[in-house]
Amino acid sequence: MKIHHLLLQAGIVLAGTLATCVIPSYAADTYSVTPASELKWADTGPQFPNTQVVILDGDPGKKNVVALRWRCPSNYKFMPHTHPGTERVTVLSGTILLAIGEKYDAAKLTEVGAGGHFVIPAKAPHYGECVEETVLEIHTPGPMGTTYVNPADDPSKKM
Q1: Which pTM does this prediction carry?
Q2: Is the pLDDT of residue 100 over 90?
């Protein structure tokens, strides 16, 4: 009887914990529409200089699903880096070359043009280049982050 009571208590605690982790991320869901003309692009920051980002949905600093668009200029090269969550990416415009690996190897780059889609697994080192001005739509879990494989490649460390 005592074991049954302890298991019941453990189940209640587990259910309560899951509810506090899962329900808030769905409780905040609301219907929204944002015309393209109202998207507010901003500088991505020192880890990806000369690029812009717009957050479409979610909070990049919290545990939730984040939808964003990332814009890079022509001939923009980014060195091997990782993100904590899986990235599901659609190329909205332009062309990007990308590959998985810890060292930049141009021979391994794969071209993905407008309308193409790719997935970068969580913590998989990847690198590439935007051939022309390119806009990507990315869906990923938060909290977001970027870690360069070689810290010396991190542009924010060069400033």
Answers
A1: 0.80
A2: yes
